[in-house]
Amino acid sequence: MKILSLNFLTCAVKACKTSPNSYPLHPKDAELVQDELGLKPEMIISVLPRIDWEALKSTCSELGFPALPEAAPTKEELENDEKILKDLHHLLLETSISEGKLVCGNCGHEYAIKEGIANFLLPGHLV
Amino acid sequence: MDLPTPNTSHVPYERVYEPAEDSFLLLDTFSLDTERAFLRERFSENVPLVVEIGTGSGVVLGFVNAHAQTLFGTRRILTAGVDMNAYACRATVETARRAERDNPSTHGLYLGSSMGDLTTSIRDHEIDVLIFNPPYVPTSEMPLQPDEFKPEPAPSQQPSFDDDSYLLSLSYAGGKDGMETTDRLIDSLSAILSPQGCAYILFCAQNRPEQVKQRIRGFGPAWRAETVGSSGKTAGREKLQVVRIWRESDSA
Ligand SMILES: C[S@@+](CC[C@H](N)C(=O)[O-])C[C@H]1O[C@@H](n2cnc3c(N)ncnc32)[C@H](O)[C@@H]1O
Predict the structure, then answer these.
(1) Distance (Å, whole) CA B80 – CA B116
(2) Residue B201 pairs with which residues in a beta bridge?
(3) Which CATH number fits domain B21-247: 3.20.20.70, 3.30.230.10, 3.40.50.720, 3.40.50.150?
(4) Which is higher by pLDDT, B2 or B199?
(5) What is the torsional sign of CA B14, B15, B21, B27?
(6) What pTM value is reported for the model?
(7) What are the residue boundaries of the structural domains of chain B, listed by start?
(8) How far is the CA of B179 from the centre of ligand 1 (A)?
């Protein structure tokens, strides 16, 4: 699963939905894999407004990547700054989690990731 | 519009739904000029997140992702899949990857697949295009998980006969009116769709799609539910149909 997925995922436990701590989920013991993809600046530029920057920053630092800028870069900044464009391309599009866990910051539930597939099915008592 | 169907020759059909008339009706519906025009217009400004629930083999999600340029008029779409069946998720990853490779100049960005129940693992108000070919066959009961069932089997593990029949029953058994699972999804639509979000859901005649559409229109004055694709007419009734659900933001 691509790192960008974490921007859209949350804890499957109903009671956690309203807690700000349930998002983003925290990667734990994550093994990362890289796909070499051609740089597509338009993709990064147009996907950026759709991203929750605060959540991305925390995911990024929890995975041990260099810190992202405090505020999301603007379209102009991206067009003129090849480095940040490349960093985001690498982080968002080329990097996937293959093994590990995603942990909810509210209830502590751990969702396993195996072969790049996270399992959000809950055991009976949590449904 | 006749676009190539993704290759699914790697999919284990003993435990993953094999593409059938319903799957192909979805492909045909997305290929219609009317749907392509609708999607293009609706998502001309922002990058849509397309989520398929119950991907099975991945034939539908793999198709939509691979043909992003042709269907959405842009390659800038994000796609993701969910299924309760681990084998379906693995199959979808492979189907999407192959279809991207086979359509190098038109595909979107497939983010991955996860196991889950409907959209419970996805943040509210994020989904722009929701696709669901549900378990729609009326059955007296919903599938019961076998005692020894392993939701995340290792690739080397050979599932038992009981596990395989459970996984296959998940793909078709819909309980009362074939609507038990679909009804849960419909009830969550207003929370899960983005403001410009829409959903494509497949129904069979026993699901009473006319009543379902009325119920959705009752959500509020902006809500729309229309049949946009159908197949297999018997005695004037469509056997299968795809209903598009959306909110008309400009009508207010
Ligand atoms: C009729 S099959 C459709 C498969 C594929 N999309 C196609 O069109 O060929 C229904 C799929 O939904 C999955 N499914 C059933 N209930 C589900 C649920 N509650 N949440 C997620 N997936 C579910 C099944 O495992 C199965 O893969």
Answers:
(1) 12
(2) B132, B243
(3) 3.40.50.150
(4) B199
(5) negative
(6) 0.96
(7) 21-247
(8) 13
| Measured distance CA(B81)–CA(B50) in Å, rounded | 9
Distance B67 CA to ligand 1 centre (A): 22
Pairing of strands B78-83, B49-53: parallel
For B45, which residue in chain A has the nearest alpha carbon? A46
Is the peptide bond preceding residue A49 cis, with omega within 30 degrees of 0? no
For residues B222 and A55, what is the distance between their CA atoms, to the nearest angstrom? 32
Task: Name the residue with the closest Cα to ligand 1, atom 24.
Answer: B171
Structure tokens at B142: 């919903």
- Per DSSP, what are the bridge partners of residue A39? none
Query: Which of A35, A9, A21 is closest to A120 using CA atoms?
Result: A9
Structure tokens at A93: 């599009």
To test the pocket of ligand 1, the residue of B30, B60, B83, B130 to mutate (highest count of ligand atoms within 8 Å of its CB) is B83
Q: What is the pLDDT of residue A35?
A: 87
Inter-chain residue contact A121 with B84, CB threshold 8 Å: yes
Q: What is the pLDDT of residues B119-140, one digit of tens each?
A: 999 999 999 999 999 999 999 9
Confidence of residue B252 (pLDDT cuts 50, 70, 90): very low
Two tokens, residue A70:
């405090």
| Beta strand pairing call for B193-204 and B223-234 | unpaired
Interval B14-19 mean pLDDT: 96
Q: Which domain holds residue A118?
A: 3-126
CA distance B23 to B202: 9
| CA–CA separation, B175 and B172 (whole Å) | 9
What ipTM was predicted for this assembly?
A: 0.95
Listing from the earlier edge strand, what are the strands of the sheet with A110-114? Answer: A26-34, A95-103, A110-114, A117-119, B109-115, B78-83, B49-53, B127-132, B193-204, B237-247, B223-234
What does the alpha-carbon distance between residue B247 and residue B217 come to, in Å, rounded to a whole number? 9
